[in-house]
Design a protein that fits this description.
It contains eleven helices and four strands; from the N terminus they run ααααβββααααβααα. A four-stranded antiparallel sheet has the order 1-2-3-4. The chain has one domain: BirA Bifunctional Protein, domain 2, CATH 3.30.930. Helix content is 47%, strand content 11%. α3 crosses α10, α5 packs across α6 and α5 crosses α11. The protein is of the alpha+beta class. A hairpin with a 5-residue loop joins β2 and β3.
Length: 221
């Protein structure tokens, strides 16, 4: 695998984001994609060591297309500026929490996990779990190692108390969340370091308790 090659390709794509350029540089794209597949394959193998639910998951089903969807606005760049993967049972579009890896130049590479946009049914169940078992999620978020790596939850929040919950609820701030994702960003130098692929699973191990909480909440689906 060659992460500097991936970043160089993506930097060039950022500056020349068009189908004409992509067609002319298809060999470089395929090489960069192949290197990214190797990164994801290695990461999956490492994650399987502490998350048994990922056994049988393949890189192919986890990697997102670099093309933007067909509903992009006219004149908008047709390609994403990153290579990304969402690793979970069932792959990138699974209803379960994803371990996330995105490689993107200019300090935008990141890893993390959770559920960025739960469905309305998922959100209802997660809020019920917070209500019934408030200490578990808070203890995950308060863990020193977790907090040092990921900080706070990333996600939209309701302005007012969600329907069915009183504004005096002791866990109101957690109940307001409409997304439950955490991310850690890297500089290009960090991503290009030879030990980057060894560092990532150590960070993502800290996400496992968050996934356990979310999975426990949505298992009724």
């Amino acid at each position: 695998m060659n992460i500097p090659f991936i970043l160089d390709f993506l930097q060039n794509l950022r500056q020349n984001n068009s189908k004409i350029w992509m067609d002319a540089n298809r060999e470089e794209y395929l090489q960069a994609k192949a290197f990214f597949v190797e990164v994801v394959e290695q990461l999956i193998a490492q994650l399987q060591q502490f998350d048994a639910s990922l056994h049988g998951v393949t890189a192919r089903e986890c990697i997102f297309r670099i093309n933007k969807n067909d509903f992009s606005k006219k004149g908008e760049a047709p390609y994403k500026g990153h290579f990304g993967a969402g690793i979970s049972p069932g792959g990138r579009h699974s209803p379960f929490p994803n371990y996330v890896l995105l490689l993107e130049p200019n300090g935008l590479s990141r890893v993390g996990g959770g559920i960025r946009k739960p469905t309305s049914k998922q959100l209802k169940l997660i809020r019920e779990e917070i209500d019934y078992n408030p200490n578990q999620l808070q203890s995950v978020l308060d863990n020193a190692a977790f907090k040092n790596i990921f900080g706070e939850l990333r996600g939209d929040k309701a302005v007012h108390a969600p329907k069915g919950y009183d504004k005096s609820h002791p866990e109101l701030e957690l109940l307001k969340y409409k997304g439950f994702q955490v991310l850690h960003y890297f500089s290009d130098e960090e991503v290009s370091h030879p030990q980057f692929t060894e560092r990532v699973p150590l960070l993502l191990r800290q996400v496992k308790p968050l996934h356990d909480f979310l999975n426990n909440a949505i298992t009724e689906l």
